[in-house]
Amino acid sequence: MVTQYVDMSAASCLLTEDQFLCSICLDVFTDPVALPCGHNFCNKCITEHWDVNVQCQCPICKRLYNTRPELHVNTFISEMAAQFRQSVQQKTSSSSSSEQQAAKPGEVPCDVCTGTKLKALKSCLVCLVSYCETHLEPHLTVSGLKRHQLIDPVENLEGRVCTNHDKLLELFCKTDQMCVCMLCTYSDHKAHDVVPLKEEYEGKKAELKETEAEIQQMIQKRRLKLQEIKRSVELSKERADRETAEGVQAFTALKESVERGQAEFIRTIKEKQRTTEKQAEDFIKELEQEISELKKRSSEVEQLSVSEDHLHLIQSFSSLNTAPPTKDWTEVSFCPPSYELIVRRSVIQLEKTLGKQIKKVLEVELKKVQQYAVDVILDPDIVLPTPTQSDDEQQVKEVDNCRCILSDHSLTSGRFYFEVQVSRWSMWTLGVATKSNMKRQITLSPSNGFWTVSLEYLGRYFAAADPPVHLSPKSKPQKVGVFVDYEEGLVSFYDTDTAALICSFTGCSFTDKLYPFFSPCRTDGDKIHIIYSLRKFRRKKTLRP
Questions:
Q1: pLDDT digits (tens, 9 = 90+) for 352-373
Q2: Domain boundaries, the chain
């Protein structure tokens, strides 16, 4: 009797691949069991299937069983499936493992590879397994596995399975805004608004496109703002360089003027000193010469006085008895010169020179702020009682005949400049203000929203600070210019005829809109009648109500 041994690996190759697949999980059998009807399933698959369903029946032929059949692992099919799995793995791993790369940190590894884990090419949402190119082959060739849903490799596939029913999350509950499985729609999410995951995916994808478009628009706006800021920085640097050059030029001119004045002053002092020294030298020389003559005469007189020659003494007496001719020094005086007048004249001349230089600088500065001149129209709808500055009775009487007017032009950023002809009024208040406190009579001050300069009834000027600051302009301003830099917190007042800076409010913190503010008062005892058809202020022209 001859016994034949069959190579199991060879026998497994004679069977088709579909014969090794479980019809429930569509994967190669794991612990296969046979039902009385003859159909085979994975032990876990058929057990879970019967746990979910009320009736026990065969998923293939639908045969019903009154009692759950006792299941036993089919050893023969189990060994055949194991041989098939091993042969496929060995066959493909030897030919392609050398060509594939091992999974690097951050890449999804193949769940099937033993030893070195190769980089996964796809993940199966049915098997919940990630496959490299080699182990993905059955899903590309086996008809049952071809129906599985493959996606780009991802980690944590278990997170795609419902924790309650161990089923794939393939639906989305709009009511609870969460992913659910099919069985969830029969329990916790029954009667909820549930859509296929793909439908929600498309909707969310469309929303993401809109979000991306909005983000790109925001990015573009910020890029433009970035360019604007960079350009502002460049302009600021150019302006700073230009201002520095002009400032250095102005200070150099002033320095040169001072140095010239100093040199002229020293030259004058030295010349005066040289003249004084020359005069003194002449006096000294003349005095020394007379002293020498007198000493000579004194010697001759002394010799004659001791002479015993009677005839010689008598003959020489007339010539030696009188002093030699000399200057009458009693009328001659020599006093050191006074240098105080020289110093005074030099300082006065230097002051005039510096005044001219400073005026040129101020004129240039005024021209710079005048470039921000704006059109201003006084608003006749905003004619209110003038705010007060003191409790002086006379001023209150004058204030009763005054009105304050705001312009229709406001500023919330940047710079502006305007001018007002104030020479026609004996009293006036000029500057900028907010509207917040214009509905009631209130003290002028920055804390109350007023940045102003005023001419009082006694011809006194003051700035409405906390407390008020009295001003002493060199000349009575005929026309006053007002410059505002909102960001810098600056309000400056200029005498436009002399280009002199009257005063400045610095370090201000503006939060509201600023309006040009003007309050004219009566002239020569007559009340001012505000004309509502107010003349418009044009660029670099004068505002005249």
A1: 887 787 788 788 888 888 888 8
A2: 1-94, 161-192, 200-331, 371-520
Structural contact between residues 454 and 381, judged by C-beta atoms closer than 8 angstroms: no
The pLDDT value recorded for residue 482 is 94
Instruction: State which CATH number among 2.60.120.920, 3.30.930.10, 3.30.70.360, 1.10.150.170 fits the domain covering 371-520.
Output: 2.60.120.920
**CA-to-CA separations, 218 to 207, 211, 330, 507, in angstroms, rounded:** 16, 10, 101, 34
Q: Length of the chain in residues, anyone? A: 545
The answer to whether residues 375 and 408 touch, using CB atoms and an 8 Å cutoff, is: no
Q: Alpha-carbon dihedral of residues 425, 427, 432, 433, nearest 10 degrees?
A: -130
Q: How far apart are CA 246 and CA 235, in angstroms?
A: 16
Sign of CA dihedral 21, 24, 27, 32: negative
Beta-carbon count within 10 A of 188 CB: 13
Considering Cα of 518, then 523, then 525, then 527, what sign does the dihedral take?
negative
DSSP string, 394-446: HHHHHHHT-EEEEES--BSSSEEEEEEE-TT-SSEEEEEE-STTTTS----SG
Spatial distance between the Cα atoms of 464 and 491, rounded to a whole number of angstroms: 12
Name which of 402, 481, 414, 406 is nearest 438 in CA terms: 406
Do the domains spanning 1-94 and 371-520 agree at the CATH topology level? no
- 67's torsion region: left (phi>0), alpha (psi -120 to 50) or beta? beta
For residue 197, give the nearest of 183, 212, 182 by alpha carbon: 182
Q: Return d(Cα 471, Cα 466) in angstroms, integer.
A: 14
**Cβ burial 155-171 (10 Å sphere, 16+ → b, else e):** eebeebebeebebbbbb
**Which two structure tokens, joined as six digits, stand for 211?**
């979000």
Contact 499, 364 (CB under 8 A): no
Residue type, 194: V
Cβ proximity of 432 and 501 under 8 Å: no
CATH architecture of 1-94: 2-Layer Sandwich (3.30)
Prediction pTM value: 0.47
Q: What is the residue whose two structure tokens read 């009385």?
A: 36
User: What tens digit of pLDDT does each residue of 369-421 get?
Assistant: 888 888 776 554 444 444 444 444 333 333 344 566 777 778 888 899 999 88
pLDDT at 440: 59
DSSP state letter for 39 = -
